[in-house]
Automatic annotation (TrEMBL), chain A:
Primary residence: membrane
Compartments, as annotated in UniProt: Cell membrane
PANTHER family associated with the record: LINEARMYCIN RESISTANCE PERMEASE PROTEIN LNRM, MEMBRANE COMPONENT OF ABC TRANSPORTER YHHJ-RELATED
Keywords associated with the record: Cell membrane, Membrane, Transmembrane, Transmembrane helix, Transport
PROSITE patterns documented for this protein: ABC_TM2
Organism: Caldanaerobacter subterraneus
Protein's UniProt name: ABC-2 type transport system permease protein
Keyword ATP-binding appears in the UniProt entry: no
Pfam families: ABC2_membrane_3
Record domain ABC transmembrane type-2: where: 125-369
Family membership noted in the UniProt record: Belongs to the ABC-2 integral membrane protein family.
GO cellular component: plasma membrane
Automatic annotation (TrEMBL), chain B:
Pfam families linked to this entry: ABC_tran
Record-given protein name: ABC-2 type transport system ATP-binding protein
SUPFAM superfamilies linked to this entry: P-loop containing nucleoside triphosphate hydrolases (SSF52540)
InterPro entries named among the record's database cross-references: AAA+_ATPase, ABC_transporter-like_ATP-bd, ABC_transporter-like_CS, P-loop_NTPase
Molecular functions per Gene Ontology: ATP binding; ATP hydrolysis activity
Keyword ATP-binding (UniProt): yes
Keywords linked to the UniProt accession: ATP-binding, Nucleotide-binding
Span of domain ABC transporter: 4-234
Amino acid sequence: MRILTIMLKEIKEILYDKNVMAIMILLPIVLIGILGFAFSSTSDIKLGDIKVIYTDEGDTILSQGFDIFIKETDKMGVKFVEIKDVSKGISEIEKRTYDGYAFLKGKDITFYKNAHGDIKTEIAESMIDSFVDTFKGMTAIASQNPAFLKNRGDINLNREFVKITSIDRKVKQTSFDYYSVTMLTLIILYGAMSGVFSIDMERTKKTGRRILASPVKKYEILIGKVLGVTFSVFIQALIIIFFSKYIFGANWGNDIITVFVIIISEIIFVVGLGVSLGFIIKNGAMAQGLLNGIIPFIAFLGGSYYPVKEMGSQFIERLSNFSPITWTNTAIFNVIWVGNYQYVPTALMVNLILAAFFIVLSAYLFRREAF
Amino acid sequence: MKIVRMKDLTKRFGNIIALDNVNLEIEEGEIYGLLGPNGAGKTTAISIICGLISFDRGEVYVFDKDIRKDAEFIKKNIGIVPQDVAIYGDLTAYENVKFFASLYGLKGKELKENVEMALEFVGLSDKAKEVPNKFSGGMKRRLNIACAIAHRPKLIIMDEPTVGIDPQSRNHILESVKKLNEMGSTIIYTSHYMEEVEAICTRISIMDHGKVIAEGTKEELTSMVTDVNTVYIEIGSIDGIKEEELKGIKGVKDVEIKDSTIKITSLKDVSNFDDIIHYFISKNIPIRNLRNEIPDLETVFLTLTGRKLRD
């Protein structure tokens, strides 16, 4: 009950604060608008282009089906470029010039990729996987019932494969789609400020001493604060998602619940970070300055401002693995665009381990001394 | 019942001894004053009573319970009015009082009624829906009190509650303290304003450098520092006044005549006031003014420490 009391007080304090609300809601919406429009009209930055190379050593039926497949997918913004030399194809992928490499051999397709979790690579792989699954299914039916093939003819049959594999979904990611996600996860990082101030305000307003003089336990105060700030930041995130979806037409996919789960894990992490900083640095302005220095760097590595892979630097790409936002963005993009949940556990694990670390640290610091 | 009992209480902050073997007992129903300059140890003492800080040595019992064992029970029955205004500027007055009362376990109808009672008590009912950021200093101080009393504590600790406010708000707060005491709460009142402590406290401890240097009622304290009574008598003309005659009155120790004012110092335990007045009447000398000098707590503190309270 007392946890709920503290939680509600935190929510009221944050949501009543017009400055915080302006920064946390208006700023990302304005940024999504500016970056979305800027990059959608710039010819040399096309977030939507997916470039895949392929080598065709497949059998006749597979080759015919794949030819139709690449013609259909071309209309959706996926560009396939044929390359004869397999080793050159692999080397191109190592150099990350292309988003993927499909090698057709006999009845099989092997897909090579380098950038794990990159959304364009994942989309390309997902489409090829779907094509292969459907192709194998249909050829199995055909081998059991040859009349099926005779009635339809190879080409028509392959068109059906393509029709199925072309996937009834949006393939080309617009800059609005991209920045709606990255600006959201970026602004959530600034939710750490609310965590800092939830501690610092009790110090500057002298209310912390009054709370501690009441029969409330320290763990109740800490849990109430973390939950309250988490809920407030989540409300702000919901408003941003709603606005980007219905005003900018951003794609948030078909599984918003999983997206919410990932977002909440990030919020708990940043709130834990903020609260612990509030205890470590007993000066709100100084803690704010530190966060203002760190967050843009973490966000940059996480691809908040520009996709890291598009920068063409393997060093930055490797460094980006150390940004928790990289994993959050990758997981969200994969859920939205490919329906791929492979990166969700990693994102949750990274966020929740960091959250646990910072919350335990806060509990330790709070136990040792008051606000 | 003893509301607070401290025995040989010692608290150190590094090399600084904040409380040095403090012994103190506060009875139920008292308005107990803790008087002393800044750094005397008043806030440390009340922080220990509230369970906010630990102590190094000694014993502390509140409501006859050991603070180290029954902190939750003790905290539930204490209301603290901190020295600094400790409220949330962006929450309404009602939300502020409700929040702090909720921390003491109040809920539902009881919570609502108590919050309204507390706001009414401090005269802020009509400002319940307004945010304290727009309040005057005095109103904030009153809300500070409301936040401490909504859960109807048995013991209310007021730590310098009148610092930096106008005389009108100060009077309102002092009246509130008396009323709360009449309603059944024991009050611990800390201040370095001796006039306030003199005006409202039934018993007083004078603290300095972490020690209780004197304790008792105001009369008991003043009697500790002086064994004389001083009377100033202003007359029209000193013609006919003889210093020796005045010195001959029983108990008079000293007489000083300056211009038209006569200062007569007598032994405190000798009742000679009638004799002194009779001397002037018998000489047909009209008295224009008469003033009896009673030592105040400032004098007591000065005498005991050699320093003024606000040094």
